[in-house]
Amino acid sequence: MAKYLLSVYQPEGTPPAPEELEKIMARVAAFEEDAKAAGVWVFSGGLDGQETATVVHAQGDEVLVTDGPFAEAKEYLGGLTIIDCADLDEALHWGRRATLATTLPIEVRPFYWA
């Protein structure tokens, strides 16, 4: 088994209307329940907007702390799920399920150390 990160990329801009967001969140909850039932779910969570980010960056012996995202982008990391799968094919299955649930792009990436 290997652990994979499913990164949810959120576009900048106006969020979905409340009735659409309710449908999306119901699909996300079903996705998570299915992943738990299949024994692959490890952890998941949504992130606050990129405007709430604080960047901590070492420069020599100094540590700089700045408000805001590390990089300006049209899309940002909006949430994540960690799954434990037999192989990339199984992880991609769950990535497909995640993009259908969220309607957002999902990056599937194996952990190097886990």
What would your notes on this structure say?
The N and C termini lie close together (10 Å). The mean pLDDT is 94. Helix 1 packs antiparallel against helix 2. With 114 residues, this protein is α+β, with helices and mostly antiparallel strands. It has helices spanning 18-37, 88-102, and strands at residues 2-11, 41-46, 54-59, 62-67, 75-85, 106-110. It contains two helices and six strands. The strands form two sheets. It has a four-stranded antiparallel β-sheet, with helices on one face. It has a two-stranded antiparallel sheet with strand order 3-4. The relative contact order is 0.34.
Please, what is the average pLDDT? 94
Largest sheet: 4 strands, antiparallel
Q: Tell me the overall shape.
A: flat
Strand order of the largest sheet: 2-5-1-6
| % residues in beta strands | 35-45%
Helix and strand run: EHEEEEHE
Helix content: 25-40%
Distance between the termini: 10 Å
The number of helical segments is 2
The radius of gyration over CA amounts to: 16 Å
DSSP summary, beta strand count: 6
What structural category arises from helix and sheet content? alpha+beta
User: Which residue ranges are poorly predicted, with pLDDT under 50 across at least 5 consecutive positions?
Assistant: none
